Amino acid sequence: MTAEQRQALESAIMVNPEVLHGTPCFKDSRVPVQTLLDFLEDGDSVDGFLSVYPSIPRERVVAFLELSRDITIEQLCASS
Asked: What does the alpha-carbon distance between residue 67 and residue 72 come to, in Å, rounded to a whole number?
């Protein structure tokens, strides 16, 4: 993970042992990023997620998804 990616991730996601036992959550919330992934896996949209969790800024959701994509692609390329 690059320094730029780490900085972007830290602006969108937090991992705090005192919040949900360290489960990765959207920054300044108690909403796990896994909840977004579950929404998407069930065929729902980002808009659907945001309608249920309106306190999460769209920018954080998009940043998380873009970083997840980039890191996954980097890992796939590194392992081939």
From this structure: 8
